[in-house]
Amino acid sequence: MVAVTWRRATVAAAAALALAAGCSGGSGGDPASGTHTSASVPKPSYDDARSTPVEDSVYPDVGDPGVDALHYDLDLSWEPTTKTLTGHETLLLRSTAAADHLQLDLAATMLPTKVAVDGRTVEASHPGDHLVVPGDFAADHTYTLKLDYGGVPAPVHAPSTRRDTSRIGLTVDAAGGLWTMQEPYGAFTWYAVNDQPSDKAFYDIGVDVPAPMVGVANGRLVDRSTEDGRTETDWRLDEPAASYLVTLAVGPYQESTAESSSGVPISYWTTPDDTSLLADLKQAPALVDWLEAKLGPYPFDSLGFVLVDGDSGMETQTMITLGRDPLDTEPDTLLHEIAHQWYGDLVTPSDWRDVWMNEGMAMYLQGAWQDETWKLPPGDSLDTWADDEPRSRRTAGPPGAYKADHFAELNVYYGPALMWDALRRTVGDDVFWKLVRDWPAARAERSTGRDDYLAWLQEQTGRDLTAFFQQWLMAPTSPLAR
Predict the structure, then answer these.
(1) Which among 23, 111, 170, 411 could disulfide-bond with 190, CB atoms 3.0 to 4.6 Å apart, if both were Cys?
(2) Where is the Aminopeptidase N-like N-terminal domain positioned along the sequence (predicted)?
(3) Residue 374 maps to a domain
């Protein structure tokens, strides 16, 4: 998620100069028309999505460690006149322990009409935002759950004081379209899900909407057809993703395409009213090039952007979700969200106490790009953030132990970014940038936590960094104030 900051006028002016000098790269294609079909690609092995779910230490009421979701197949239909979403869901899951029931997250507004396990109809209960499925579940055994449901989607309150994300989850816009940003949770507002970051799964998402609306989701567009006044799009995510990284958008979208220098296919999903913002998005190929030089090859098969009526930006896996505020399509924001495809999406925190693992590195990379591209003095961006870091820590708590009602606030962006710069100065540039490049590959497609991360860093550097990380992540007083 993008940080909420006030950009200085000097930085904005530097960005404008860089863009005028040709900072952007790539070229967009013509809006898509007709039927889109890609060649048949074998489905991945769902065993690759086997996870070790844990009860989240910050938001324990969401998600269930007894469920290991392997594959979600969602068949969705949207009726804007009644604001009704209908879903047919097939979930392949693994029971992590012997149990007489399994629990998923499903909003109270989404009403189940039929639930079956391995072909047998069961009487599930739906207390609040939970779906409780009875049965005789064996440890480490897989089951197929099928669910029919429907209702009027509604976002839920976000555990944060951020004004740009006061509500999270599936939202109906003024024109009858849909969009979602759902960090740290909120996927449950539109499908039954183990809505926690420690449980990654594969996704197939089909979206049926009235034309000229189009449904957009994560991954590859494997099929598109229009018949009897309705358009269906079918999307496949070929790598496992945490639920907060899944997206859905419905609107009068058109597709434009581009490609990075290394051949990463890039798609832009915008409406006819988004002309100026589309021009901003077309800077993406150059940003991918810059990040690949730092982090190695882009980790997924495709990259996309979809514009929605929100007020923020979200690193939804392979299909980044961006609000229509011009700040949300500025190049530093785009760079930040693309960086998350390595830090956050490819390797994901297993517990929300470690959101700093995502945001700190994305912020550090954003600062390095800003200084280099905008011709700022080295470290200028970090110096600006250093001014605010002590205050953000006092307000929201230390980055590794923040207040639960202050999710994704500046303390988990600025402090960890400054921490990474302190580590760079400790181990040297060459060692540091090798660490930055190697970590996502070392834990690719996994969810993991700080203990694993810090142990790996100490092994790679040969240094005892315990006190260093304790001070930066857990101390109530900023290291900058000492």
Answers:
(1) 170
(2) 70-245
(3) yes
